[in-house]
């Protein structure tokens, strides 16, 4: 059906679900006098995948992405969900740090996530213990995979290779150093089953990681929707070699969402600390980012962390138009000034601030047409102390997922 | 069943079809004294894909090709077919230019398409409006995707990145310049529903494109079945840098097919014009190609643009042998002489002429064994004004598709 | 069901089976003072594939591996199994040489195969005639694909591109030379249908290949579980260019297995001969390897070449624990001393000897948790005639396959 195509064994103990997702985008830069960016059509995502379970509690997901230029295998994991309070997840999955990263890749409010997401790993390979508890008197629900939005209280604690800020290992994901990263997250829906219906959809949590990478490569930081680099670890002050992340790292991610009727909001703050080492220079870099986004479904449907289900599916000849969600976001990322002892401040910005407006037209529960406008301004990043020029982008997406 | 494996929702509104195709080839060069080419076995195509529809009129196709060395995602599109007269196709698909390119990748008469196909893009990312009309008194049929062979009159008009002659963007297909390409096509079956049954299968059309690429890379031109380069934009006259396609381009493709009983024919002509720019040298290059192919099903089945369905499936112990189709093709490509102001005429030919003989043995509607012989001769391309040596190739294919 | 998800046409003539496999590993080196190797989590295998048949006897398999860094298409073949005595297999598949290589990729006794496997090609593209015969009075069973463990006597004879020791061509697998390799194998279960039940599971055979490659590249040889290079054809004696395999090659693989109740054993010997040519130096290199492995299912299930099916599936709250198999292996590879006329003996070992202990915990017929310990010692490979330091590795695997 519309919620996917499933094959279930006659004894109901085994199930495989055949899933797919396509995202076809168009991106146009406004006032792009410097021609930094190329207006383009692109296939952002083209996935065919299997998920399901064997013997009821061994869940799996194998998800390639054929539109990816490097990470062609975003997810490949097993989750032994023997008991709601303790499940064992192994393989490649989203590390349990950024709330917005953990949101489904077809479910976001905007075409791309905000700044906080890019100060943690995108995907990583490792092992995680996770579980959920319910309010006394209620039964916790088993939820497989890295994100649980259903239970009163959830925890995740794991060990993984550590793939760096915005890192996403390709293929079989060999690590580059012996040191591993520890990741943990606590998240609660404190008003579950309390009867305060307008607060049932409030979720609060905090996540973090500690690691100690050995000469790990650094990925450039880019703007959310334009994916334009504004912090480039290869453009350096005279006399410096390309820095690596070498030494103790930690991240702290307080995070929250609130969904109530047609209204929704997500907020997240992050501090991500690492040591940039270039030759004998060792700089402690504490990058910070935060965002707040709000959305409203004008056609009256319920808002949720997993998107909107229209009351009436699109069928204009019958006067049915689907659901319309409007959204706004403010997000910023502050690069530690110490960075610019190594990185050239004339070519990388020390701060990026983005505000974004979006409209999501849900034709039905599978098809969405999205349009976003984003404006990003920068501190520094141009010659003689001037600022990088603002980025203004208009982007659309046609999306089908099942 | 033999026409594919489908899962349909109980309300018939949603369907996914699980499809696959394998092509395993052998290619042997005859009289290849210069050892230009390597005799080989190869897997030409290995595809697993999903296609289907949601809410009846939102069609989709997600098709990776695991045998491809670069373009691992040939097709990824959505097609909102709300009305036969106006459907909206978005994503990555075959641009509506070359008739033979639009033929199904498992349905060709020979192992590889003729010369005209290689003077347009193979795949591109963009958006297309298309539709179909029927003879008055008949109802047009909704056909999703880039090719419609069923209706009396069809049109396609689209905008896409533009990927150059024989271009095929990989993965998420970033464009390299801001300028887009406009592509259009008109195609008619003028004798549909006329009662002249021997003319019902006649189709006539014309397609074209206009663009204005900015320093777009150029792909070498190669022979149809051998895929041997005879026009190499990296082997240049002394003092020239590698040229790009830079400036106004256009293509015109008059095209026709005719299928009547066991007989079939396809013909196509093309002029593809672009500017080769190398430093200060700007050359207007008008390349031309054409082909005519004819085929005949000796076992009595109907010929068609989508292949042959045997009356009796192969089962030799029961004296059943499947269907046999014989075919011949003449095809040539004329490189504009102006090209050789930049490109070295001792290493690239100014004209290639190929004649091809083929036999297709349809074991059943899924399995085909093909054998082709092709001879290509060239004008120029060797030292001191001599011609490149002829290419003679014998090739076979075992193919399964569903 | 647990044995896979199948869609069969109503007339039973066509079937497609949707299959998947995930292997998530952890590898830790013990006493790795030199930090040659990186402790890591990794996704070793992530496959989604289709196999099945059309018109009853045309079998196919299309199997990509999304965790592979280079060979993303391990198998893509058609097998026309018209009669048990003569089937025609075309495409990309495991060449019929090493017995352990032919074992299913999810069915091995240890995480990785022993040394003999790496002296033949991993995968190759070509064509193979194969068939099976039964003891007089019994009917041979049709078995599609490259491995047949069911019939009394089987043969395989094929021609393929030849991809070198441990070679595995990527994508559409173009060959690099005109010369092809001939591969043959004979294998018998002499006690099938004899009533000596403890000998029914004994299989004996011999396989071999002959070829004559022209300047084919050489792949490094690596330890079984650690995949650490100990023979590196790029680290050479002064004055030598990188050698290629150039001239007559042959391989001989006597092989056997025996499964009887809970006990299992596999043994294999190989001599693989080729010419290393570097400039004017032409060295005939005869590498040799062998292994013997034994396993025992302590929980009482039957052992087999295709793994173990637990009597009771894992369900600890009900006191059910699955099946446990213990195993040991000794394996060695002897590099021909002539190699070191070209290759630097201070950086490559002349012999590697590995002993391995393993435990396989079958939770059910789909999920296995494996743990292996392996110790590899070397002759030579360090400066001044000393030996490379031993490799000690502990590795685990969580595996699901269906």
Give the secondary structure arrangement, pairings included.
The structure is a homotrimer of 402-residue chains.
Chain A: E1 5-8, E2 15-30, E3 40-54, E4 58-63, E5 75-83, E6 86-93, H1 99-102, E7 124-133, E8 153-160, E9 181-188, E10 202-211, E11 221-222, E12 229-231, E13 244-245, E14 249-260, E15 263-278, E16 281-297, E17 323-334, E18 351-362, E19 367-379, E20 391-401
Antiparallel strand pairs in A: 1-2, 2-3, 2-20, 3-4, 4-5, 5-6, 6-7, 7-8, 8-9, 9-10, 10-14, 11-12, 13-15, 14-15, 15-16, 16-17, 17-18, 18-19, 19-20
SS element count, helices of chain A? 1
Number of domains of chain A: 1
Shape of chain A: globular
* Content of β-strand of chain A: over 45%
Level-2 CATH architecture of chain A: Beta Barrel
Instruction: Write the CATH homologous superfamily of chain A.
Output: Porin
- Major sheet description of chain A: 16 strands, antiparallel, barrel
Largest interface: A-C, 43 and 35 residues
Would you tell me which CATH topology of chain A applies? Porin
**Spatial strand arrangement across the major sheet of chain A:** 2-3-4-5-6-7-8-9-10-14-15-16-17-18-19-20
- Poorly predicted regions of chain A are none
| Average of pLDDT of chain A | 95
Question: Which oligomerization state do the chains in this entry correspond to?
Answer: homotrimer
CATH class of chain A: Mainly Beta
Q: End-to-end distance of chain A, in Å?
A: 9 Å
Helix percentage range of chain A = under 10%
Question: How large, in whole angstroms, is the Cα Rg of chain A?
Answer: 21 Å
Tell me the structural class of chain A.
mainly beta
């Amino acid at each position: 059906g519309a919620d996917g195509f499933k094959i279930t064994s006659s004894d109901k103990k085994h199930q495989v679900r055949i899933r797919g997702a396509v995202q076809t985008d168009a991106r146009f830069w406004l006032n792009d006098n410097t021609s930094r960016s190329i207006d383009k059509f692109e296939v952002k995502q083209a996935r065919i995948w299997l998920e399901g379970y064997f013997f009821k509690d061994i869940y799996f997901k194998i998800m390639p992405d054929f539109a990816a230029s490097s990470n062609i295998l975003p997810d490949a994991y097993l989750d032994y969900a023997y008991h709601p309070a303790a499940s064992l997840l192994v393989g490649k999955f989203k590390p349990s740090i950024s709330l917005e990263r953990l949101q489904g890749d077809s479910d976001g409010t905007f075409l791309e996530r905000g700044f906080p997401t890019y100060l943690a790993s995108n995907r990583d390979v490792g092992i995680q213990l996770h579980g959920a508890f319910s309010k006394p008197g209620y039964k916790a629900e088993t939820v497989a995979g890295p994100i649980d939005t259903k239970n009163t209280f959830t925890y995740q604690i794991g060990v993984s290779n550590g793939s760096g800020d915005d890192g996403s290992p390709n293929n079989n994901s060999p690590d580059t150093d012996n040191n591993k990263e520890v990741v943990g997250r606590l998240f609660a829906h404190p008003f579950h089953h309390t009867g305060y219906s307008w607060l049932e959809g409030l979720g609060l949590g905090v996540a973090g990681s500690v690691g100690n990478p050995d000469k790990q490569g650094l990925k450039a930081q880019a703007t959310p929707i334009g994916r334009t680099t504004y912090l480039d670890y290869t453009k350096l002050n005279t006399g410096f070699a390309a820095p690596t992340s070498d030494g103790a790292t930690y991240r702290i991610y307080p995070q929250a969402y609130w969904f109530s009727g047609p209204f929704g909001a997500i907020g997240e703050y992050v501090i991500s600390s690492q040591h940039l080492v270039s030759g004998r220079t060792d700089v402690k870099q504490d990058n910070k980012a935060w965002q707040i986004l709000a959305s409203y479904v004008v056609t009256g449907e319920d808002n949720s962390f997993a998107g909107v289900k229209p009351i009436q599916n699109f069928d204009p000849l019958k006067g049915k138009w689907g659901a319309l969600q409007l959204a706004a976001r403010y997000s910023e990322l502050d690069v530690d000034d110490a960075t610019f002892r190594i990185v050239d401040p004339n070519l990388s910005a020390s701060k990026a601030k983005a505000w974004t407006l979006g409209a999501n037209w849900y034709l039905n529960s599978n098809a969405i047409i999205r349009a976003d406008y984003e404006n990003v301004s920068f501190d520094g990043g141009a010659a003689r102390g001037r600022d990088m020029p603002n980025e203004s982008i208009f982007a659309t997406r046609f999306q089908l997922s099942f």
